[in-house]
Specification:
By secondary structure, this protein is an alpha+beta fold. The protein folds into 2 domains: 2-52 and 281-414, no CATH class; 66-269, no CATH class. Helix content is 56%, strand content 18%. The chain is built from 13 helices and 13 strands. The chain has a 6-stranded mixed barrel. It is a multi-pass membrane protein. Its main location: membrane.
């Protein structure tokens, strides 16, 4: 009996092909949008995450804390970072190469950079050759700093894109021609050995000038030492092996610094950490909110499609009143009539959902081929779309089906 009812349901769809297609339109759009949005959303999130990783999210930044925060030790400037902290973290990283790749110093000071009569404000960053291993530094021309530059305290600098553009001009040839030229920082001559290409974003180097730590400390900027603690660090960058070990790395870093800085157990940290999970978490939240909103709109479209199905099924009940009367007169039960119309509504919803899913898969694959994004079909979204379609078909088909089942045979046969 069920097989016959299913066959009759699909016969009804074929008998009114155009009307059936219009009825399914809302379901097609809703199911297709749901699958396409969730599939492309996952692919886009993965792609953006990879770009963030390339920009430097496989690193933890240790930053100064608030020396006046409640619970911190009552020592002037204690919340600042120094070369002693850098050395402690180097020892920690050497003991756990499975977690840490390297430790990089940063001594950053805002200053003027002058070339001839042109001067611009820039962030002078004292660092070493390992910096490019924890942050993206796309060299447009020349080279980055080396260990030899650090050892010799060489008067050399690598200029970020925006600083170079303002000093030497926006033309690429003019930027390349700047190699070997001399710029002044705090009145001290520095030879340009490299130009960094533009890399906007949260870790941009565009407004920076890089020089060896020893050069910044001894030749360019004075008074950088903390009393009894050595060179003051603006931050310390720690390269990690993977985003999956961030929590373990954080625990080790905090423990090492609290121990070396003799922070009492009851006191708060007098330093802070900038973790890659923070940036990635914000990004994931934004992406999830956008994807969820569009998926909600797709769900609303499915509900609207269900209302369309209910409307057409009510029309079908009216049009087929005499047919219902004949079937009941020949012995069909209320359950038989109910089942027939529920199956017709379910068939409309499922077929519409399958058409939408097929269209969405085609669109996702085409977009993946056109853009190069590794777009994979979200089979979870496919299952959700099908399950939702079943509930929509049953939910909005039940009332018209029940109305058909409740018709009295004599009244139905009399209907004109």
């Amino acid at each position: 009996m069920l097989k016959e009812q299913i066959g009759m349901a699909f016969d009804s769809l074929r008998a009114n092909k155009f009307r059936s297609l219009l009825t399914m339109l809302g379901i097609i759009i809703g199911a297709g949008t749901l699958v396409a949005v969730l599939s492309l959303g996952n692919a886009l999130q993965s792609s953006v995450f990879e770009q963030f990783i390339d920009l430097g999210t496989r690193r933890v930044a240790v930053l100064p804390g608030d020396p006046n925060a409640k619970g911190a030790r009552n020592v002037p400037g204690y919340g600042l970072l120094s070369i002693q902290d850098y050395q402690v973290l180097e020892e920690m990283a050497a003991q756990r190469p499975d977690l840490f790749r390297l430790v990089v110093p940063e001594v950053a000071i805002s200053t003027n950079v002058r070339a001839g009569t042109t001067a611009v404000q820039a962030l002078l960053v004292g660092t070493n050759e390992d910096y490019k291993a924890v942050q993206t530094v796309p060299m447009l021309a020349g080279r980055f700093l080396t260990a030899e530059d650090e050892a010799a305290g060489a008067r050399v600098g690598v200029v970020g894109y925006l600083v170079a553009r303002d000093l030497f001009g926006a033309d690429e040839e003019a930027l390349k021609a700047a190699l070997g030229r001399t710029v002044e920082i705090n009145g001290q001559p520095i030879t340009v050995i490299g130009i960094v290409g533009s890399n906007g974003g949260p870790f941009s180097t565009d407004g920076r000038v890089f020089a060896p730590v020893s050069t910044v400390r001894l030749r360019l900027i004075g008074n950088l030492d903390l009393p009894g603690r050595g060179l003051e660090m603006s931050s310390i960058l720690i390269g990690i092996t993977s985003e999956q070990i961030v929590d373990e790395a954080e625990t080790l870093i905090v423990s090492a610094l609290r121990t070396s800085r003799e922070v009492p157990p009851e006191a708060i940290d007098d330093f802070s950490l900038n973790l890659p999970t923070q940036a990635l978490g914000v990004l994931a939240g934004i992406n999830g909110a956008i994807t969820g909103f569009i998926a909600l709109v797709a769900g609303i479209s499915l509900v609207v499609g269900g209302i369309g199905i209910m409307n057409i099924m009510l029309v079908a009940v009216t049009e087929r009143t005499r047919e219902i009367g004949v079937r009941k007169a020949l012995g069909a039960s209320d359950g038989d009539v109910l089942g027939q119309f529920v199956l017709e509504a379910l068939a409309l919803s499922l077929v519409g959902s399958l058409i939408g899913i097929a269209g969405a898969i085609s669109i996702v694959l085409l977009i993946g081929l056109a853009t190069g994004i590794a777009a994979a079909i979200s089979w979870t979204a496919v299952v959700i779309a099908l399950v939702f379609a079943v509930f929509v078909g049953l939910g909005f088909g039940l009332y018209p089906a029940r109305r058909a089942a409740m018709l009295q045979p004599i009244e139905a046969l009399r209907y004109e």
